[in-house]
Specification:
Number of strands: 8
Order of helices and strands: EHEEEHEHEEE
Number of helices: 3
Oligomer: single chain
Structural class: alpha/beta
Strand content: 35-45%
Shape: globular
Helix content: 10-25%
Length: about 140
């Protein structure tokens, strides 16, 4: 029986740069960081969600050939991948804190659909939505 989703992979330009962003700016922590030859399996998790990991992977072998990896890097850099969504208690406060840490926002907090949301990008170009939990 399937027990649920454990890891969702995210392509990043540079694993060390992504690790610093997700740990220092978003508050994630390292779950797994292992190297096998040229391949590095790097996952982070939010401290309040220990059953879920976000994989920070570079496009390339052994998963992708170089031509495909180059195309994926270009798509990620353009911000063309589907956005991921973070849940926050107070979107405006989270926006102010993250902005002070140097997070690049693509959309300031907006009242929409009975809640508040904002958008930002990681250093690789991956888009994120940050949505305030409904009360």
């Amino acid at each position: 029986m399937i027990q649920g989703v454990e890891v969702v992979g995210l392509y990043v330009r540079d694993q060390n740069e992504a690790l610093a962003f997700y740990v220092e700016k978003l508050g994630f922590r390292v779950h797994t960081d292992v190297v096998n030859g040229d391949y590095r399996w790097l996952t982070v998790q939010h401290p309040d969600q220990p059953s879920f990991q976000l994989g920070l992977f570079t496009p390339g072998p052994p998963v992708l050939d170089e031509a495909t990896a180059q195309a994926v890097r270009a798509i990620v850099a353009k911000g063309a991948m589907p956005p991921l969504v973070l849940s926050v208690d107070d979107c405006r406060a989270a926006h102010a804190r993250m902005l002070a840490l140097g997070v690049e926002f693509t959309q300031a907090p907006v009242d929409r659909y009975g809640t508040v949301d904002a958008g930002f990008r990681d250093p690789s170009g991956n888009g994120w939505k940050m949505i305030q939990a409904r009360r």
